[in-house]
Amino acid sequence: MPTIVRIGPYRFFFYASDREEPMHVHVERDAALAKFWLAPVRLQHSLGFGRSELVKLESLVAEHRDALMEAWNDYFAN
After folding, report:
1. What is the pLDDT of residues 2-57, one digit of tens each?
2. In the chain, which residue ranges form alpha helices assigned H by DSSP?
3. Taking the chain, what is the end-to-end CA distance rounded to the nearest angstrom?
4. Residue 19: enclosing H or E segment and its boundaries?
5. Is residue 69 within 8 Å of 14, Cβ to Cβ?
6. What residue segments make up the domains of the chain, in order of their start?
7. Are 19 and 76 contacting, i.e. CB atoms less than 8 angstroms apart?
8. Could you point out which of 3, 39, 52, 71 has its C-alpha 20 to 30 Å from the C-alpha of 14?
9. How many CB atoms lie within 10 A of CB 37?
10. Distance CA 76, CA 78 (A)
């Protein structure tokens, strides 16, 4: 489960088994978890995050979308 980036209390990552799904990223903080699609950026599901924090996370995903997509492509290119 490679970590792509850490921003503040958030860890952005994907699972090695995610290859068959569309590009996405998981975000966790403590016991909270969310999953965002990357093309286009949108929330797929969440558990434990409040609405305002999800808005912030979606903004962070959009801001770092290119780097997240590059990390996805680099990891799953094989």
Report:
1. 899 999 999 999 998 998 999 999 999 999 999 999 999 999 999 999 999 999 99
2. 51-63, 65-76
3. 16
4. none
5. no
6. 3-76
7. yes
8. 52
9. 15
10. 6
For residue 25, the one-letter residue type is V
Q: How far is CA 28 from the centre of its chain?
A: 9
User: How many other C-beta atoms are found inside a 10 Å radius of the C-beta of residue 15?
Assistant: 11
Which amino acid would we find at residue 6? R
Q: Which of 12, 4, 1, 15 is nearest to 57 (CA)?
A: 12
Write down how long the chain is.
Answer: 78
Tokens of residue 20, six digits: 């068959």
What is d(CA 74, CA 6) in angstroms, rounded to the nearest whole number? 18
Residue 68 CA to residue 61 CA, distance in Å, equals: 8
Q: How far apart are CA 47 and CA 54, in angstroms?
A: 10
Rg (CA), the chain: 12
